[in-house]
Design a protein that fits this description.
This protein is mainly beta and 256 residues long. The protein is 9% helix and 51% strand.
């Protein structure tokens, strides 16, 4: 893993940064935040996922960056017949909330994916494992998309409104779309939480039957923490629930 990161950083240094980037307001997350999720496959308690914004100083040139690590692994009986060991890392520009470096290591039932992406938002390019691609200037990666979506202003959203931004996934630009559904209070492992409800519009055919087979709930507060996600897929259903958290940028608001 260390050799891989060094290689990625060398690629980054070969793409010098220059010019100016946007500055966006982020009150949703900060260094030190950790979110722990429980994963279900049907009625089976299948595993756990952890997303953490590392409490460390990172720089790219003169730019400050956030180092985000996401890990997921199967547990219990599910681990016996389908072992999952996934790790994702993203280095995200602190002011523009767009990625510099993305590292993906997936091992799911023996199926493995290794990806190293180096983004250059100034040149609107991505070096994906040595192959150059043109992108939109602030294209996100798989992890930074999760965090960028949290800083979107939904205060004036109406049911049916769609919010979109570009992501670079599997060597191509993919327009991510989030359809606003409304507000809902749900019962969770941490209590009753007021949420904003969405349908992230997914690509049907590969995993999903329909574009709106994924539903997500985020806290209706300044944190915009994803509390729950449910997906109907071709071979069953998957559910993800927040079970613990720490290091939030704002107090969690629970319904008494």
């Amino acid at each position: 893993m260390k050799i891989t990161i060094i290689t990625v950083l060398v690629l980054f240094m070969m793409n010098p940064i220059h010019g100016q980037l946007r500055k966006v307001e982020n009150n949703a997350f900060k260094k030190g935040e950790q979110l722990v999720y429980r994963l279900h496959y049907g009625f089976i308690d299948a595993g756990e996922a952890v997303l953490e914004v590392k409490d460390e100083e990172k720089k790219y040139g003169e730019r400050s960056a956030l180092h985000v690590v996401g890990v997921a692994q199967s547990k219990g009986a599910f681990d016996w017949f389908f072992k999952v060991r996934d790790r994702y890392e993203s280095y995200i520009d602190e002011e523009s909330v767009c990625p510099w470096v993305f590292v993906r290591r997936v091992d799911e039932g023996g199926y493995k994916i290794n990806q190293n992406y180096v983004f250059n938002p100034y040149k609107k390019t991505v070096n994906a494992d040595g192959k150059p691609f043109n992108t939109s200037q602030y294209a996100q990666d798989m992890i930074s998309s999760f965090y960028y979506a949290r800083i979107i202003d939904f205060s004036n959203a109406k049911p049916g409104d769609i919010f979109s931004f570009d992501a670079f996934v599997d060597n191509e630009i993919y327009p991510l779309k989030i359809k606003y559904v409304g507000k809902e209070t749900i019962k969770t492992d941490i209590g009753y939480v007021k949420c904003i409800k969405f349908h992230p519009v997914v690509q049907k055919g590969r995993v999903f039957k329909h574009e709106e087979d994924l539903t997500a709930w985020i806290t209706d507060d300044k944190n915009h923490i994803p509390i729950r996600a449910e997906a109907d897929i071709l071979v069953g259903s998957i559910k993800m629930d927040l079970k613990s958290y720490k290091g939030l940028a704002n107090p969690m608001v629970l319904v008494k």
